[in-house]
Amino acid sequence: MTVTEATRTHTAEAASMCVPAGRAAQELTLKRGEFDLAVHLGLIAVEPAAAGGRPRIRQQEIDRLRGLPGFPGSLRDQVRTAGTAEAATLLGVRPVRFTGLARIGCVTPVAFYLNRYRAVVWLYLVDDLLAFAAREPGLITGKSPAGMRTMLDAGIDRRARNWRSRRIDRLLSRAEDPWTRAALQASALDPVQLAEVVEDPYERAYLARVQPDSVFGRPGSVSGREAMERLMLADDPDEILWRRVNLTLELERARELRPAPRPGHDPGFHPVGSGPARSRLARGRLAADRPAAGLPVPVSPQAGPSPRRPAGRPGAGRGLLARIGLRRPRRGDR
């Protein structure tokens, strides 16, 4: 048997030991939404997906979970969620009081769904709610603190921001490749913000290509996907700046590892992104790159760097403000 044949045999054997998500959910007696959340929280380990495929679950992982004490109730309890009304009941407060606590960031949503009016309904982990009640009993009972009332009067609502941060941090915990990590930071920036930080259109295309989905749990309906796309974008100046700085730092690490591929150097690379999972990036973020579609194929990085800027390191040597797409005001601008 040749090395190639042995590799194919090993791959086929590994694939045969894995099951699709639907079957895994059935064996674990979880609803699909509960299963998706368990995967997102890292309670269920998944196997990396092949190009264009869906992640799968090893039978060994299913057997491990089924053997845990208290199964299936113990697993289901860890992914139990509550909306505003149920959460308020659990904490013994009125729904308006709970909404205020969530808006100022005392509890962070873990998921959402759209009601029949297509309004976003946030969901919270019951474990998080109980932990908050034990940690901050003073915010549960009695009169609302003055600081809380001041924040609510100012219109503060951190639910979407905290959900974004929780989601991105969870995905970052599973990502090792610097380009993938950079793509996750970029996912919170709109096309204009992204283009200001990442000037190279081929790098933006590569970020669109390698950006991972949330493993499972991506809304299947058109309205759900549109809501996800809106909620993914940072809308607060502090949050936008935070993502720009983190994207810049991740990009510097990624460029040191390898440059983004260029047409002609990577047969699988397409500047307009790839696959339906990248639809938002392909439609929105890369729209700014269309005038660059006729760019000539760049010279290979192996041809040697320019005297002032190393190849594959756009922005090297500039200050942090310049690298994140900002600049210090000139004297004449003040």
What does this structure look like?
This protein is mainly alpha-helical. The chain has 18 helices and 5 strands. It has helices at 3-16, 21-27, 32-40, 59-66, 73-78, 84-91, 95-103, 126-135, 137-140, 146-153, 159-172, 178-186, 191-197, 201-210, 222-232, 237-257, 279-283, 320-323, and strands spanning 18-19, 57-58, 81-82, 111-114, 120-125. Strands 3-5-4 form a 3-stranded antiparallel β-sheet. A hairpin with a 5-residue loop joins strand 4 (111-114) and strand 5 (120-125). Helix 6 (84-91) packs across helix 7, helix 12 (178-186) crosses helix 14 and helix 12 packs antiparallel against helix 16 (237-257). The longest helix has 21 residues, at 237-257. The protein is globular. The model is unreliable at 270-312 (pLDDT under 50).
Write the layout of secondary structure elements.
Blueprint: H1 3-16, E1 18-19, H2 21-27, H3 32-40, E2 57-58, H4 59-66, H5 73-78, E3 81-82, H6 84-91, H7 95-103, E4 111-114, E5 120-125, H8 126-135, H9 137-140, H10 146-153, H11 159-172, H12 178-186, H13 191-197, H14 201-210, H15 222-232, H16 237-257, H17 279-283, H18 320-323
Antiparallel strand pairs: 1-2, 3-5, 4-5
Helix pairs in contact: 6-7, 12-14, 12-16
Structure at a glance:
The chain has helices at 3-16, 21-27, 32-40, 59-66, 73-78, 84-91, 95-103, 126-135, 137-140, 146-153, 159-172, 178-186, 191-197, 201-210, 222-232, 237-257, 279-283, 320-323, and strands spanning 18-19, 57-58, 81-82, 111-114, 120-125. The strands form 2 sheets. It has a 3-stranded antiparallel β-sheet. A two-stranded antiparallel ribbon has the order 1-2.
